[in-house]
Amino acid sequence: MKVIKYSLGQLQANCYFLIKDNDCLIIDPGDEVSFILEELQRRRLKLVAMLATHGHFDHLMAAGEIQKSFNVPLYINKKDRFLINRLIDSAEHFLGHQPLIIKPTLIKRLIKVKNKITDFKFQVITTPGHSPGSVCFYFKKEKVVFTGDTLHKGTIGRFDHSYCNKKDLKNSLITLSKLPEETKVYPGHEEETTIKEEKNNLLHYINIL
């Protein structure tokens, strides 16, 4: 499986293309929809689905417009569906202007167990705290995990929103700390890391939360 990262939009959220043969699975279709569509066309990829690590606008802004070109579902934890309803208002609040956003329509609920979309096999790990419906996507065979805003290189996602939960976040970090040390971490912002590299970071936040 080939992984390509694009840091997109004003908040530089990471959007990931997961590629097997001609099939493409997108994790966190953030901003810059024209760029995403052009890349799919340029690489001659067949988009099979989109996955959301959580419901924050900077990770989802392009999803609805992508669905205008590709009739594919967006999978998201049902506990973050309320954030999709706030998508436009949240974007305007944090960006300082009202961007043109088409809300995603073909939305499917993520399952907590093992999943398979075409040849992509992965596990959904529920990791609430940053948001009620935050999840991580763990590809055991490939030894990679996509952590959204739950875990970043050297730090963790914010937990000061009214719907955040420090206790849940602590338990989520404990869960991630138990993944094999060689697991490569693809976060929602900034650069990649590994579970081994983040051991001390994880222990620090687990102790203070």
Description of the structure:
It is a single chain. It is globular, with a radius of gyration of 16 Å. The chain has two domains: 1-110, Metallo-beta-lactamase, Chain A, CATH 3.60.15; 122-209, Metallo-beta-lactamase, Chain A (4-Layer Sandwich), CATH 3.60.15.10. Strands 1-2-3-4-5-6 form a six-stranded mixed β-sheet, with no helix packed on it. The protein is of the alpha/beta class and 209 residues long. The protein has helices spanning 33-42, 63-69, 81-85, 87-95, 166-177, 199-208, and strands at 2-8, 13-20, 23-27, 46-51, 74-76, 107-109, 114-117, 120-126, 135-139, 144-148, 151-152, 155-156, 184-187, 193-194.
Quick structural gist:
With 209 residues, this protein is α/β, with parallel strands linked by helices. The protein has helices spanning 33-42, 63-69, 81-85, 87-95, 166-177, 199-208; strands at residues 2-8, 13-20, 23-27, 46-51, 74-76, 107-109, 114-117, 120-126, 135-139, 144-148, 151-152, 155-156, 184-187, 193-194. The protein folds into two domains: 1-110, Ribonuclease Z/Hydroxyacylglutathione hydrolase-like (Metallo-beta-lactamase, Chain A); 122-209, Ribonuclease Z/Hydroxyacylglutathione hydrolase-like (Metallo-beta-lactamase, Chain A), CATH 3.60.15.10.
